Amino acid sequence: MTLEQLKMLKQVAELGSLKSASEVLFKTQPAISQGIKQLESQLGLQLFNRQGYRLTLTGYGQQIYQCALSLLNEAEQMKQLATFLTAGNEASITLAIEASYDLKKILPVLEMTQNEFPHTQIILKQEYINGALEAVKSEQADIALTTIDNMTLESGHFEANKLYKGYLCNVAAPRFVDRHPTLTSVSELKDEYQIVVQDSGQSSQGINYSVQTGQRCWYVNDFSTKKTLIMSGIGWGRLPDYMIKDELAQNTLSALDIEDFNSRVALNYQAIKLQSRLLGPVATKLWQNLELVHVSE
Question: Which candidate, 36, 75, 155, 187, has a CA 20 to 30 Å from the CA of 8?
Answer without folding.
Answer: 155
